[in-house]
Design a protein that fits this description.
The complex is a heterodimer of chains A (about 600) and B (about 270). Helices cover about 45% and strands about 10% of the residues of chain A. By secondary structure, chain A is of the alpha/beta class. In chain A, the strands form three sheets. In chain A, strands 5-11-10-14-12-13 form a six-stranded mixed sheet. In chain A, strands 2-1-3-4 form a four-stranded mixed sheet, covered by helices on one side. By secondary structure, chain B is α+β, with helices and mostly antiparallel strands. In chain B, about 25% of the residues lie in helices and about 15% in strands. A five-stranded mixed sheet of chain B has the order 2-1-5-3-4, with helices on both faces. The chains are: A alpha/beta (about 600), B alpha+beta (about 270). The interface between A and B is large, with 64 and 50 residues.
Chain lengths: ~600, ~270
């Protein structure tokens, strides 16, 4: 950047170009994250001037724009490289060694932009490519199957400044990896089939079918979908809204990626059926920022559905059946998968979970009754509208009707999508995915449950082990403590910061684990960690904090040896490491000889 | 309080064995406050929208309907301490007839002490050099809970001081993110001067102005937002140590006394002086 003094003329030009980007973005959508994304893409960051212009254009406080920019991981206040790389740090689709290699190869300090502005490299939470090996996002587009050779190719493409559009297409191939199709994935559903069945049966009749089917929320919490729709339908409001939660952020989960890629019609159809049932005119699909690459084709599906009369005014010729769907794209915040935080994000705010009650079903988007359901839930609802509740109930267990689409990843031969009737045993899943010498399985992602081989006969269903879809397999050779540390880091990074127990507690857990991993922990540290984990779990504001210490508690309960074998042979080790504290002085003085160390 | 409404709905909740009446629309905190029962809190102030972020007012409710909220994942694992009780914030949870609430118990006060320690160590709280010492609710709550140390290692964050305003000083080192100033400015002053930005442990107080500093924010000395800070993050300039240590609010009053808010707000003219 030049050092010439900024003239008022220069300022005016800059302001004009900011305003034109903002105006263009707003013509597409006035959602704040969309406008900020457009600015970030054009100017590689959101400058203070941009903050002021956006606030003025959208007529919202500057502090609100600022707060949002600083909340979401994909938005930046200082310039990123022209090639901005976000390397997944998930245990399934990340690889710290390859990240280091790329940083080294391109001479980039992790987390910073290179001085010439060409490239920046940073870590990001799971990007949902867990069935594709190590993966990264370059300017938002995923590249998977990374290895040392791929890293070299990418480094060359960046150094030769080849525009991303000209990179070889095979780099960007993402496949569905559907290994086992079941009730939903086997069931052909042509666009409009579910809607026609719904109209034939009537909205009330269809609601009855959805209730009868026993369909429960596929995000993991498992609330009755039909009851949620009914509560919303009965609630008085100026308007009602349908929101599809496609903010699939739980590490190890990628089934929504595949559903949105290959079964988007079923998802949109389910949303439209819900709209008819509750009387909504407007729907939103909240797509996680990591899946932005799916946006063009999702928009195409929406356009096609409007052309087919499946969205818009007078759907399928029925007067008064008006409904349309807008796609809002997130910007790197796991917490926005929490339904009320998602709604806050839709309302151009930071993704802070609301106090409940009231629940979204009575006070949701813009304070109006709102149904928020998972991608898979809407897809299942569309199939139920067509096939009926009895068809659905034939699969699964008493309390968990139907099927569950699993994202299986980690140490197994065949990672991918597996659809089973509810009630399937963990052992069955492990056999099918070719997992051998399994040490542990993380069910439902870091927020879920970690089990060992004594429990592989447990079943996947709401009565036993519930999951939003993530199944992560850890073989005998895995350093399980490193996995737990990875999860602790994840929660500390993704905590929204609203409530004290989660904001401070997740960071304290992360630090305590580091101390133990470094061989400086004692029994005292284990006791402390247990006490802290219980407090975070029971006293946090929302589901994130309430589950953040699950990996620590599960591991301490089922795999105590991974901690105990690292303990120092003393009653107490202080947190403060005198020798480590001298590191800054060593760096400043360029010394690393024996005399510069205490030991 | 509307006395008529009280007559119409003679409902009660029970806190630590004591029956406490409530009226429709009241939270557990409202009902406790009206009955003179102290539930420790930092981010709550009667008259402002309840927030529920500090979690000091955490209480346990027993004997609620077994089915908890659908997103309450605590019930899904074996580590649930007691399936018959659930933890809520008293300041945001509506009072409901028959609630059996634990509040002033050794276990809950231990939880509160730990949360208070968390608030101390995540910021830079150096009481002896802070003008707010003795008038600081965080400090008073810490004494009330018997907190003798920070327990956890200090985070020592680097936070910005904003001294740009002619009469008001913002020292973020002491901010506990309670958002009382955010709400007071928005709901009482009608100005919207403050907001929280960032995420997780990096969350911090920001100022809603073109420069991002207080000088062009429209904040005035008389604003409630200036006086409501429970700690020493927002201070009025040129009014240091007018009330000597030993004669300050919490030297003379227990933090649980009712009506202290007024005392704290009118600090410069101490009502006992």
């Amino acid at each position: 950047m030049s050092k010439t003094s900024i003239t008022s003329q220069g300022n005016a030009i800059r302001t004009d170009s900011l305003r034109s980007v903002i105006a263009l973005a707003c013509a597409e959508s006035r959602h704040l994250l969309h406008v900020l994304y457009a600015l970030q893409r054009q100017f590689l960051h959101i400058s203070d001037a941009a903050l002021r212009e956006v606030a003025a254009y959208l007529d919202i406080p500057i502090s609100q724009v600022d707060a949002v920019v600083e909340f979401y991981s994909f938005l930046h206040k200082s310039p990123r490289g022209r090639f901005d790389i976000m390397f997944s740090n998930c245990t399934s689709c990340g690889d710290p060694e390859l990240l280091r290699l790329l940083c080294q190869r391109l001479d980039v300090v992790e987390g910073e932009s290179r001085a010439d502005g060409l490239v920046s490299i940073d870590q990001t939470s799971c990007i949902g490519m867990c069935d594709h090996g190590a993966a990264l996002l370059v300017n938002g587009t995923p590249i998977a199957h990374l290895d040392a050779g791929m890293i070299e190719r990418i480094a060359i493409l960046i150094e030769t400044e080849r525009p991303l559009a000209d990179w070889p297409a095979e780099l960007f191939v993402v496949t569905g990896n559907i290994r086992r199709a079941g009730l939903l994935l086997n069931d052909g559903l042509a666009a409009g089939d579910g809607l026609r069945a719904m109209l034939a049966c009537g909205a009330t009749g269809t609601l009855g079918e959805v209730i009868q089917s026993g369909l429960r929320g596929r995000g993991g919490a498992g609330f009755s979908t039909g009851m949620k729709w009914q509560f919303c339908r009965e609630e008085r409001g100026r308007a009602r809204y349908v929101v599809c939660n496609a903010d699939e952020g739980e590490p190890g989960t990628f089934k929504d990626r595949v559903l949105l890629h290959s079964h988007a019609d079923a998802v949109f159809e389910g949303m439209t059926i819900c709209a008819a049932v509750i009387g909504a005119k407007q729907g939103f699909l909240y797509l996680r920022g990591e899946y932005r690459y799916l946006l063009p084709q999702l928009q195409m599906v929406l356009v096609r559905r409007r052309e087919m009369g499946l969205l818009g005014t007078g759907i399928l010729g029925k007067i008064g059946f008006d409904f349309d769907i807008e796609i809002a794209v997130g910007a790197g915040a796991y917490i926005c998968g929490e339904e009320s935080a998602l709604i806050e994000s839709l309302e151009n705010k930071r993704g802070i979970p609301r106090n409940r009650p009231p629940f979204p079903v009575t006070h949701g988007y813009l304070g109006q009754p709102t149904v928020v359901n998972n991608v898979e839930t809407f897809a299942a609802a569309a199939h139920i509208a067509l096939r009926g509740s009895a068809w659905f109930r034939k699969s699964g267990t008493d309390e968990s009707a139907g099927s569950k689409i699993l994202s299986v990843s980690g140490d197994c031969a065949k990672p991918g999508i597996y659809e089973y009737p509810f009630g399937v045993s963990i052992r069955q899943v492990l056999d099918d995915c070719g997992a051998q010498d399994v040490q542990a399985v993380q069910i439902g992602g870091p927020a879920g449950t970690l089990i060992g081989n004594a429990e592989f006969d447990r079943r996947l269903c709401f009565e036993d082990l519930s999951t939003g879809g993530s199944i992560m397999v850890f073989g005998e050779k895995r350093d399980l403590l490193a996995v737990i540390r990875n999860f602790a880091h994840f929660f500390a990074h993704e905590s929204c910061g609203f409530c004290t127990p989660c904001r401070v507690g997740t960071t304290l857990l992360r630090k305590r684990l580091s101390k133990i991993a470094a061989g400086r922990g004692t029994q005292y540290d284990l006791d402390e960690m247990k006490r802290l984990a219980a407090l975070v779990k029971h006293r946090s504001h929302c589901g994130l904090g309430q589950t953040a210490s699950n990996p620590v508690l599960d591991a301490m309960h089922r795999f105590p040896h991974i901690f105990e074998q690292r303990l120092a042979q003393s009653d107490f080790e202080p947190y403060f490491d005198l020798d480590a504290a001298l590191e800054e002085a060593r760096q400043v003085t360029h010394r690393n000889d024996a005399a510069a160390h205490l030991e | 309080m509307n006395e008529d409404a009280k007559m119409v709905t003679p409902n009660t909740i029970n806190i630590d064995g004591q029956d406490i009446p409530f009226t429709a629309g009241q939270t557990i905190m409202d009902a406790a406050f009206a009955a003179g029962v102290y539930i420790p809190h930092l981010c709550h102030r009667p008259g402002l929208t309840p927030h529920g972020s500090c979690k000091l007012c955490t209480v346990d409710i027993r004997n609620r309907i077994a089915a908890s909220s659908p997103s309450d994942r605590r019930t899904q694992t074996k580590f649930t301490v007691d399936a018959d009780s659930r933890s809520v914030s008293a300041c945001t949870t509506p009072a409901a007839a028959g609630q059996q609430i634990s509040s002033n118990t050794p276990a809950l006060n231990e939880v509160r002490k730990t949360i208070t320690q968390m608030l101390f160590i995540e910021g830079n709280h150096l009481c002896p050099s802070c003008e707010k010492s003795g008038d600081c609710t965080l400090q008073a709550v810490a004494y009330h809970l018997g907190m003798l140390d920070g327990h956890f290692p200090q985070f020592f964050p680097r936070r910005e001081v904003d001294a740009s305003h002619p009469t008001v000083m913002l020292d973020r080192d002491r901010c506990i993110l309670c958002e009382l100033c955010v709400r007071a400015s928005r709901e009482v002053d009608g100005k919207n001067v403050f907001a929280i930005a960032g995420r997780g442990i990096d969350a911090h107080l920001i100022v809603n102005s073109p420069s991002g500093t207080l000088e062009d924010s429209g904040l005035e000395t008389g604003d409630m937002a200036v006086h409501i800070c429970p700690v020493g993050a927002i201070l009025i300039k040129e009014h240091g140590y007018e009330v000597p240590i030993g004669r300050r609010t919490f030297d003379l009053h227990h933090v649980g006394e009712a009506g202290l808010e007024k005392v704290v707000l009118a600090k410069a003219r101490h009502h006992d002086e």
